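User: Round two. Same drill as before: sequence, then structure, for each protein.

Assistant: Same drill it is. First protein:
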Amino acid sequence: MPFHIPVLSDRNLTLRPHRETDVDPVLRRSVDPVTQRWTTVPLQYTRKMAVEYVAAISVPQDIEISWALDLDGGYAGSLDLRFQGANSGNLGFVTAPEYRAQGLMSRAVALAVAHALDDLGWDVVTWSANTGNVGSYKTVWRNGFPPPIAVPHFLPHRGRMVEGWVSSLAAGDPRTPTGSWTQWNDVAARLPSPSSSISLQP
């Protein structure tokens, strides 16, 4: 049965279904170099791809919920909550360039995690990212995700498997940071650094 896409709000931030007016903002964030570095969005991204993407995720899907971040009426990014079986799921998200470094995605993750663990009754939500994506980890760290572990050859990226970071949050876990962000420097020193071989080549 397809997952309903609920509208969730935190003050001026709303998670809502994508709509046609999101096509051009989706195109802009998809051709952004930072987005292309850390995600698997096609490198030769076109407006036609954006149109097809928005149409596909704006309706209920069988294994995931896709939200647009709406800040005071403007598209600020996308967040996916993907069911992976065994009463669990994982997060995927990307912030529009002009809305980065404002803590918006952390607020969005808080809404999505609460929906997964409280409303849907899932046992656990996981997060993963290519090794070195500190910004992505800080987003989930604010919501209680513990320091990640590094797994070699874990994530597909442009035709090959690369090292990845993974962390998880269970239903009974606190949803606030454990320790201060400055402690991250100590954790990061024990984790693999970004692979120099990750590039933007097709």
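Second protein:
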Amino acid sequence: MSKSTSKASAKPKLQRKARPTQTPEIEEPTIASPTERVIAIVYDGMLILALLFLVGTVLTVIGTLLTMQTGTESAQAQSLPTWYQNFIMTPSFILTLVGFYGLFWRRSGQTLGMQTWRLKTVNNSGHLLTWKQSFRRILAACLMPLLCGLIGSLIGGSRAVLLLSAVFGLMFNYIFCLFNRRGIAVQDMLSNTITLKMPKQQHEGLWSGFKNRKKNK
């Protein structure tokens, strides 16, 4: 074998330079839009109405058995006592509402309707809400509907006017987002919380949130 061929074989083979891998851009959570938040409320509202109907039915049966004499004719039908409606049924409805949102917000920051649209409610530090923060947020969300409903009842006096005024107060909470520099709602501002639109790759479903919390424990 000649010297030229031995030198050629001794030369190391040149390796192709690896192309730099492009890392996918990580999307950041953004402020949830008013439209998506209202749609999520409509989703949750169906479940909440079913829960309130169930609670109301159970309490009505209990109240009828405890406070009223049952008759056999429709003319003997009576309404539940006012004290029972005000001090038993109304607080029970409020506790049902607080329990519904508080449970989901504490566990994963998402109700079923919010999970559909990848929305998540956290405090200003980015952590899940406590029971106290959840209760404060619910009260803040009810402030404008109660105030508008009160004004409507004073002006019109009918139930229809009161209901329409309360619905306007609820919508005002989210219309406020359009005029707020940060794009947050009234209840966000009053309770120091925020509702975010989560990106797809960072989105964690409701049941996944439950499982992960159990594993961490």
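Helices lie at 3-10, 34-67, 82-107, 112-116, 131-155, 159-179, 186-191, 206-216.

User: Perfect.
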